[in-house]
Design goal:
Layout (H helix, E strand, L loop, with lengths): L1 H14 L6 H8 L4 E5 L5 E8 L5 E5 L10 H7 L4 E5 L17 H14 L5 E6 L1 H12 L4 E7 L15 H6 L2 H7 L5 H11 L8 H11 L4 H9 L10 H4 L7 E6 L7 H10 L4 E5 L6 H4 L1 H16 L12
Parallel strand pairs: 3-4, 3-5, 5-6, 6-7, 7-8
Antiparallel strand pairs: 1-2, 2-4
Helix pairs in contact: 4-5, 8-9
Length: about 325
């Protein structure tokens, strides 16, 4: 038993991975568009403000354990026409981690509000993916006067139905308090790769470069504790309901969903569509949890149509009166 304990301990130490300092991460994962600001609580936040500064503004919010890099393809396709503001949420990407009691969606909404205030943005279309989608619809309930439109991409929020879900192993482990404590300091490369493959139908999207980015950014100081806090159930989860979401019917809303999403099932998109009167729903065949990457061109085409017909509609000119 003692020898076995020594072997297990040796294996654990061999798999341990230290934090990666922020300067090292910034040298790899920033670009010429990257900017930083310090929030009112002292947290240094990474964001990008790019595209057409005179165009309508879109604010892009990533999901759980992700970063603003997930919007790369959308930004490339939209930057000629729109001002595009993407940000790393606290405890994600290159944004520092606040006190752990702030690792909750209501605080993330406060962060969005602080960023748009600082950038002088009065009105915008808010786009959120997965956990960022839940952050976005909760923001919309609090600040409806800010929004021209709302776009929910594989957004979370409804009570999970286990029959509709086949979550990756890493998410099942993170749901277990003992497992997530053990995982905190270990090399999660294999689990991350498997989790990403489970998020796409076309696994060719899961390159070693992307796996490395996810693993590296998870090792930013404080990020592993932040992820554990988000999965602990202590973050004040707000569940969607028809009654709660009814006020969103006043905001033009687009819902994008993959029909093969193992994390947020297509049923969730249907529930948002039914609860938000007048919303539009697009379900993509043979697409997983990340349609903004897996079907970038199709999802952008649907977004453009929505923005052109529901959000940024040119007023009809009054007919000239008779003289």
């Amino acid at each position: 038993m003692f020898v076995l304990a020594l072997i297990l301990a040796a294996g654990w130490f061999a798999l341990r991975r230290a934090d990666i300092p922020y300067p090292s991460l910034e040298a790899i994962y920033t670009n010429s568009e990257s900017e930083f600001t310090t929030l009112s609580d002292g947290v240094k936040l990474h964001y990008r403000d790019q595209g057409n500064p005179d165009g309508p503004t879109l604010v892009l919010v990533h999901g759980f354990s992700s970063s603003l890099h997930t919007w790369k393809h959308w930004v490339e396709l939209l930057e000629d026409e729109y001002r595009l503001v993407s940000l790393d949420l606290p405890g994600h990407g290159l944004t520092r981690t606040p006190s752990l009691d702030k690792m909750q969606l209501t605080h993330f909404g406060d962060v969005i509000e602080e960023v748009v205030e600082e950038l002088g943005i009065d009105r915008f279309t808010l786009i959120g993916h997965s956990m960022g989608g839940a952050t976005s619809w909760q923001y919309a309930l609090r600040f409806p006067e800010r929004l021209d439109g709302l776009v929910l991409v594989a957004a979370s929020g409804w009570r999970p139905d286990d029959e509709d879900r086949d979550p990756p192993l890493i998410f099942r482990l993170l749901a277990n308090p003992v497992a997530r404590t053990i995982l905190r300091d270990l090399d999660t490369t294999r689990l991350t790769r498997d989790g990403l493959k489970n998020s796409f139908v076309d696994e060719s999207f899961v390159t070693e470069e992307i796996v490395t980015r996810y693993v590296d950014l998870s090792r930013a100081p404080g990020h592993r504790d932040a992820i554990i806090e988000l999965t602990s159930g202590r973050n004040g989860r707000i569940e969607a309901s028809n009654v709660l979401l009814e006020p969103l019917s006043a905001i033009p809303t687009l819902i994008l969903q993959g029909d093969s999403d193992n994390l947020v099932p297509a049923r969730s998109g249907m529930l948002f569509n039914a609860a938000i009167e007048g919303s539009e729903l697009k379900i993509y065949s043979d697409v997983g949890h990340v349609p903004q990457e897996e079907v970038a061109e199709q999802s952008v085409a649907d977004l453009r149509t929505f923005l052109d017909t529901r959000v940024h509609v040119e007023p009809v000119a009054e007919p000239a009166g008779e003289e």
